Fold Amino acid permease.
Amino acid sequence: MEKGNQQLKRTLQARHIMMLALGGAIGAGLFKGSSAAIDIAGPAVIVAYLIGGIILLFIMQGLAEMAVKNPNARTFRDLVQPILGDFSAHFLDWIYWKMWVLNIAAEGIVAAMFIQYWFPSVPTWLLVLLIAILITLLNVFSVKLFAEAEYWMASVKIAVIVLFIIFGVLLLFVPFQGHEPTGFANLTAHDGFFPNGTKGLIAAMLVVVYSYGGTEMIGVTLAEAQNPEKVIPKAIRNTFVRIVGFYVLPFLIIVSLMPWDKVNESSQSPFVIVFDSIGIPYASDIMNAIILLAIFSSMNSGLYASSRVLFTQSEDGKVPKIFSKLSKKRVPFVAVITCTAALYLGVLISFVAGDQTFNYLMGSLSYTVLFIWFFITLAHLRSRSKGEVDLQKYHVKWFPYTTWFALICIIAIFFGILFTTSIIQTIITMCIYLVITLSYFYQNSPKKRSMNLASNK
């Protein structure tokens, strides 16, 4: 893994990997999209995020166990391929790549909109161009610079969430300056805890899956992690606790402070409303900046993940060799620049879909996250049949019960999303999957193989 100057450099520490996963998972979906999730499920949104968190824990435990058994793995592909075969590895790699380039496109447009809060006369295309340049520079110069930037951006997001929780608890239980504490009465006072029934809970899982998507990015850091067999399990344990805490607790506070059916009536984020209630000056400007930072952080993580998938595909001969070209700092700069092009694709999509851009992309991304979780879980189940696990190293203690639980839940959520999601989102996603499937059979056709052999001579 350290041969010459042609391999990625192991510079990512546990703190970098943990914050990278948090950067991908805690983005605009929490700060801005929280009202949409509440509108779908009401106070039961707490249960939806808790269930999602438990499923995520079981999936990531399986990922950690496979990473420990295969310390030379570079990404998901190397973990899955020996267990599920070439097609599954190919499909997983490309849907993961697709997920992040679409996410970069969606969040690039959203980031430009938040900047226009202060500079309304600046055109969107120019802001997206500036964002693309900034994100590219962070990723091109060195892995360490990228990791440190992501670490501090994620740290700021986490600090804001912690403050939100503290201030929210004060508003719930402490009277001050004419404010009367609300307690937990709002959880059941407006048509009960499950106002939209089981259907609302299932529909909310679309947002939950999208929100938690990105945590599995830990599986893309394998080639650049120091001591992956030790670092990955530690990062996964810490990341799970933080993600559940940073989603479940804020949602509990929001639906307790406000009637759930009033949250979506305000154009402001619930986070802004809470900071305004405490009396913090310029709360709207502060939260606009924090949300913008959260989007930058998510885009930063997404560009890292998508470029590493493209790099390993190039190393394996699946795409042209130019994408595996490294800079002196051992950064796959061609892959990084190529993935940045997704930002410009996002601008084109926005011209067609308009205000619905983010909603269309979120539906497709939720399907993709589910498929990624499915392949990881299935691979973990099959991995035990390929050989005994070393009980002296990290392993899933309650196997196979936790893994089967996660797999059954993933399948159930898939059908729930299938029947509650726009048919357009489903058709677009399945068309993309069909293209990926056909590309696999093309790459493995006799004609293509002979062409590859000729080019390698």
The domain at 14-442 is CATH 1.20.1740.10 (Amino acid/polyamine transporter I).
